[in-house]
Amino acid sequence: MKQITVLGASGFVGSAVTRALARQPIRLRAVARRRFTPAPGQAEITVAAADLTDRAALADAVAGSDAVVFLLLADGGWRAAETEEAERVNVGVMRDLIDVIGGTGGTPPLVVYGGAASQVGVPPREPIDGSEPDHPATPYDKQKLTAEQLLKDATTDGRVRGISLRLPTVFGEATAPDANHDRGVVSAMARRALEGQALTIWGDGTVRRDLVHVEDIAAAFTAALATPDPLVGGHWLLGAGRGDQLGEVFRLVARELSERTGQDPVDVTCVEPPSHAPETDLRSVTIDSTPFRAITGWRPEISLSEGVRRTVAALTPSVQGKVRT
Prior knowledge:
Elements: E1 3-7, H1 12-21, E2 27-32, E3 44-49, H2 55-62, E4 67-70, H3 84-101, E5 110-116, H4 139-156, E6 161-167, E7 169-171, H5 185-194, E8 199-202, E9 208-209, E10 211-213, H6 214-226, E11 235-237, E12 244-245, H7 246-261, E13 268-271, H8 290-296, H9 304-315
Helix pairs in contact: 1-6, 2-3, 3-4, 5-7, 5-9, 7-9
């Protein structure tokens, strides 16, 4: 029976991937900094709490794995990537993983890495499809690209079989009761609206982001694990291909929360961006994931409106919304 290990299994994306893999007849090891309870399923599940910056703990966590899903994220996410601790998690653990799991003889283990579409830097065009040169503009994206390149180099050397899935703007509800919640823009705006605060957006609200629900992202990881050979050695962009205007997304959040609570929708207002705003925050992103879709058959199934409805519902469990017909 195949052994798959998920590193970062209690995270927002990691818990969704763990839940999807738990439905399969495999041996599944869920590893996180703290112990949590993954959803049950067909899989034989082992949960391990470990500090994966400890090389010995990492070696124990991945021992015997046929495949490893790497979904670690340093505390503070991309906003705190300037710290030495963040680089240790975002880059150092990948370096250690390659050392402890690679070159053991036989078929090299598979490593599926959660990269970021933002590694490209300022998008040179719309849509982007992964063929563009990378010019990462933030410390976080530089670290993600470094870790991805370590994985590619190790793949070329025959030590591992690496696949990088570059993630778009991921949103949605947490998929396990004690898993980390989405810290992204949709949930952040829903929380503000729940507190009765106006939703502010930089510029005129027409900046676009490629939003994909976390369950669809989890399905992409299971698809990559099921059809790895054509993907090994490359990076692959995931996206819905819509390019949703953030102003419309925020208004959708406000309307959905209003329907659920019976309160008037909060205002959505446009403001001038601050002088320190990185250029990447002010540029639109649409993703063409045709290369990945053509190999795996994957495609997002959850619409933006359904995803926002589910996200808002998860943040307001005690509120009785209106009955919809």
